UniProtKB/TrEMBL annotation:
InterPro entries for the chain: ATP-NAD_kinase_N, Diacylglycerol_kinase_cat_dom, Lipid_Phosphate_FormReg, NAD/diacylglycerol_kinase_sf, YegS/DAGK_C
Family recorded in the similarity comment: Belongs to the diacylglycerol/lipid kinase family.
Gene3D superfamilies hit by this protein: 2.60.200.40, Probable inorganic polyphosphate/atp-NAD kinase, domain 1
Cofactor section: Mg(2+)
Protein's recorded name: Diacylglycerol kinase
Protein's UniProt keywords contain ATP-binding: yes
SMART domains (UniProt xref): DAGKc (SM00046)
SUPFAM superfamilies: NAD kinase/diacylglycerol kinase-like (SSF111331)
Length: 303
């Protein structure tokens, strides 16, 4: 039987995390698992409680929260080489989407936790100066990170409306960004690209921002990262691109480019990057794939 640390982010998904954590504790304990609850006021306190539970012998970590909740502890999970389970409670849940978890249905996600064989997924290791961070879904920079920066600086309104207002404000002022990319492909060949772009995203998984499939087609276990960029487009075409992101149909646009790489360095003046929806900080950054770095209880990978 598994000995699990159940990490609960009570803030996830507008406070849904706590209730989902209680359902999970009951269900996992009645299935015979040992469950140690790990919670805290912020990522720092959660990290130290989790480290203590891992030192006490937990072999599984169930993360009840959104992509941000997992992002804050990824390095501890990889270091301890535990198996994780994801109980989506966030607003975005992009890793849960990529794992094809039924993210609106906690009981169905618990069925999967209790009945599946672990699979291994890749992660992206992001270097910025002397800092290293692990990312499970997408690293994004450009139009989307500018929108995030603007939305995060706004005190009002809360929720999605803040993002809609920030999108409109950014659209008014937005100009293509000069990016310098250095791409290292699977065989180690290096390509340098200097280009204007609306955004550059590095996909370990296909989506960010709650199902925006910027890196549609990216696989969590191909040992590669998908570097996706949208070359300069008019404001009206950029607006028309948003609905395409939901389905991933933007990949057929002639301004869309994709490179599958082992690592990439991205540089652009004054641009910030976000990873798993969390602020990573200013470019430049280098991201490299860590193949099969994390063991996850989830349905088998698509063939
Ligand atoms: N275990 C935790 N306890 C308290 N706060 C946390 C914890 N983990 C992360 N946080 C903070 O809570 C914020 C939101 O976390 P999370 O991503 O889990 O929820 P969300 O934003 O609703 O979901 P999503 O990222 O899927 O949209 C993070 O940005 C982080 O600052």
């Amino acid at each position: 039987m598994r000995h699990a640390a159940l990490v609960v982010n009570p803030m996830s998904g507008k406070h849904r995390g706590e209730a989902i954590g209680e359902v999970a504790t009951r269900r996992l304990r009645s299935a015979g698992w040992t469950v140690d609850r790990v919670t805290g006021d912020d990522v720092v306190s959660v990290r130290s409680s989790l480290a203590a539970v891992l030192a006490g012998g937990a072999d599984t970590v169930v993360v009840t929260g959104g992509d941000g909740a997992l992002h804050g502890i990824l390095d501890l999970l990889v270091e301890a080489d535990v198996t994780i389970g994801v109980l989506p409670a966030g607003t975005g849940n992009d890793l849960a989407r990529a794992l094809e978890l039924p993210y609106g249905d906690t009981e169905a996600c618990l069925d999967i936790l209790l009945n599946s064989t672990p699979r291994r997924i890749d992660l992206a290791l992001v270097h910025q100066g002397d800092q290293e961070r692990l990312v499970a879904t997408v690293v994004a920079s450009g139009f989307d990170s500018k929108v995030n920066e603007r939305a995060n600086a706004m005190a009002w309104p809360r929720g999605n409306m803040r993002y809609n207002i920030a999108i409109l404000a950014e659209l008014r002022a937005f100009a293509p960004i000069p990016f310098a990319l250095e791409l290292t492909d699977a065989s180690g060949d290096i390509t340098r690209i200097d280009t204007g772009a609306m955004l550059v995203a590095i996909g370990n998984g296909p989506s960010f921002g709650g199902g925006l499939r910027i890196a549609h087609g990216a696989s969590l276990d191909d040992g590669l990262l998908d570097v996706c960029l949208i070359r300069p487009v008019s404001r009206s075409l950029l607006i028309r691109t948003f609905p395409k992101l939901q389905k991933g149909t933007h990949v057929t646009m002639e301004e869309f480019e994709r490179y599958r790489v082992r690592s990439v360095r991205i540089e652009a003046p004054g641009i910030v990057a976000y990873g798993d929806g969390e602020r990573l900080g200013d470019l430049p950054l280098t991201a490299e794939v860590l193949p099969a770095a994390l063991s996850v209880l989830a349905p088998p990978a698509p063939a």
